[in-house]
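Lab notebook page, bench 4
Experiment: in silico fold of construct C2
Operator: M.H.
Input chain length: 523 residues
Purpose: comparison with the prior construct
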Amino acid sequence: MSDYNFLMESRLSPEQYQVLTHVSRMAVEQGLNIYLVGGAVRDLTYGFEMVHDLDFAVEGNPQRIIRMIEAGRGPATSPLAPRAAESASIPQVAFLDFDPRTDSAEIQFTNGVRAEIAMTRTEVYKRPGMRPEAAPAMIFDDLRRRDFSVNAMAVSLHPNSRGLLLDPTNGVADIERRELRVLHSRSFSEDPNRIYRLLRLGARLGFKPAERTANLLASAIAEERWAKLDPGRQGRELQAILREDDPAKTLRVLSDRGLAAGLDRKLASARIPYERFARIRDLARTVSGCDPFLLNFHNAVSGLSRAHQARLAKKVIGNRKLVQTVLSLDREARKLARSLASPRFGVPSRAYKLLTGQPPTLLLFLLVHYPKPQIQKRIKNFLHKYALVHTRLPRAEFLAMGAKPGPKFEKILEQLFFDQIDGKIRTPQQLAKEFRKLAGIPEPIPPKPSKKAKPAKPAKTAKAMQAKPAESPKSPKAVSAKSVGPAKPPEAVKAKPVEPAKAAKMPKPKKAASSAIGIKNRK
């Protein structure tokens, strides 16, 4: 048995786990049992590295949670209440679409996470292809009314049973067999949308329909059950297809089977540039916070007239603001591309100011549809290179110099950032000097050089002492016991007298002188 607490912590993205934790905390505060259900549990069980959407099922009234999410409030008092440091990280809502008939809401958060919160319910189909009538129910009844066994699993998020898997239809075994199995024989006739869902999941997961399910699918297609979908369900399935990582794969399968007309007849006859979906997917991964869904929709309807594009946008997208965004992509992109390609915006700081505040979807559209090198380079520098330069500004060092945080400080940082990307500042020394100049902080006074003291003679090391030991004084000769007496002090060493220089030889006296001496002696 898998450890679903570990799987949720390790496989969900940080943003998804933040939303899951926030929603489960609010359910605990309201005293409601809440479960993670559907595709998220299937993908965690199968071992996918990425989970697409989060689906929550609530036993009770989910509006109590939905209202708190829409208001951006966190739980007030709860055993799992967030600490003060976490309160600022409450996920905020970008779009919310509430369906009062089923007490469910589709939510798009500002951090990019998509989620659905719905009431656990049973469904009764009065006519094939039409919306069913819903009634509140418990979690096991809710799981049994779902489309396939692999989607009929739930994981409890209540603190007392968190991580417990509920699998009443043995969906784990079907995942191991890589099979899609419907839960009853009327599945395709009651909800023909499941025909498209089976083909879409099969293309994404690589699963095959179980033997009995394959026979039921063939009968439903032969009876043209797929042609009985109402426009609302057609739009929801088209949206699900265009949110896939590879919409081209599913659209080709539908086209080959002749089923595309069941979603929209005009779209089925249009020429779709399938190869562009892969380029959109790859480039979307380089644009932070960008959802490729709008560009996938634009690519799918690019061969239709303006009127049919607007009709399909309302049918598939629904949200008025997003409809306006996707229909104005061509016009806004032409305007921005013309400005960005001009020589005036060859200065990096000007290009940065032009692109700041532009929707990520519009930047992705330019990368996909405008291959001009100048446009590509300036957008990629804005998204990657300049963002890195901005994060490396040494704020802490500037504050340590004596600057005070505030609007003036932020304006100085912005000017330094522009000077860096324009190449006016290249070294840390230049950056610090320019900051002091803009902030009015004087240069530090260099310390006066101190007088150098004479270095002391190094003491002899132990090795030196061992290498040349000091000579010990000679011991005096032993004295016999008979001649013991007071010791004589040692004689002082007599200095050797310096011999005088030899005098020059005098000449010998003459004989006359010697004779004179002899006369004197005789007297």
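Observations: Residues 76-88, 470-490, 500-507, 509-523 have pLDDT under 50 and may be disordered. The two ends are 156 Å apart (CA to CA).
Next step: discuss at group meeting.
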